[in-house]
């Protein structure tokens, strides 16, 4: 699972104790793998408004991935920024582990890079 995907996931447990903390899900015991991917600057610039930068920054810090603290005024002209963003959201893959909701503690397992976001009947 790429970090771009993680940046769009939140807990959907019906009776989550604290809905304000359903996003971002916190990683636990993850196995990361960097898989090289072709860089597409146009895609990266178009995705920026859709990303929650503070959540991405928090997640990358937890995982030891370095990205800039702030988005530059002209990201399309900042090669260093685009490379860091590309590496973080498109090349870093979470292969194993889990994601934990900070609101209710629900755990979503990640197996072979696929997050299991299905809920039990009583959680829906």
TrEMBL record:
It comes from the Eukaryota. GO terms for molecular function: protein heterodimerization activity. InterPro entries: Trm112, Trm112-like. SUPFAM superfamilies: Trm112p-like. GO terms for biological process: rRNA (guanine-N7)-methylation; tRNA methylation. Pfam families: Trm112p (PF03966). Belongs to the TRM112 family. This is Trm112p-domain-containing protein. The lineage of its organism: Eukaryota, Fungi, Fungi incertae sedis, Zoopagomycota, Kickxellomycotina.
